[in-house]
Design a protein that fits this description.
Elements lengths: L1 E2 L6 E4 L3 E5 L5 E4 L4 E3 L5 E3 L6 E2 L2 E2 L6 E5 L4 E6 L8 E5 L2 E2 L6 E3 L5 E3 L12 E4 L1 E2 L6 H39 L1
Antiparallel strand pairs: 1-16, 2-15, 3-4, 3-12, 5-6, 7-8, 9-10, 10-11, 13-14
Amino acid sequence: LAATGRPLDVAVLGAGWIAVESADGREAYTRAGNLQINANGQLQTASGLNVQGDGGPIAIPPDNNITISPDGTISVVPLFGTPNNVSVVGRIKLVNPPENELVRGDDGLFRIKSGEPANLDENVRVASETLEGSNVNPVDSMVNMISLARQFDMQIKMLQTADANANKASQILSMNA
């Protein structure tokens, strides 16, 4: 997890998914928590998909400070007027369907095989102002790949040398016969 300090960034802690509305209008699931607000005030993923709330897409009123709590509840405080007026505008639908029921789509989103939406899971938590990073170190992976490629080249050359030696031995034996 990497702290970003950006109020719309959330990382799912442990097992769980964020429900979004896919391009075909069906519910799908992602762990990408770099959220944004579009021109119409809809909470969306970075790729423009509406984030689902308890009752559908979540609308954020303009000119507000946004806070996302660990259970996915989104609260806003107006920038102008009464600063202590906290309003709850929605709650991100957090789900945790069994992994064997999920299938990955061509768009990178996950869906339940039956096509039914998953039930809200009260145990799924998010960390606000945080993003989930990759569990792969790209530098280590690249060094490992180069090392494996060199080992492969060395083994191919060894096989070619062994084959050439076998051919020469076969020629010498055929001359003696």
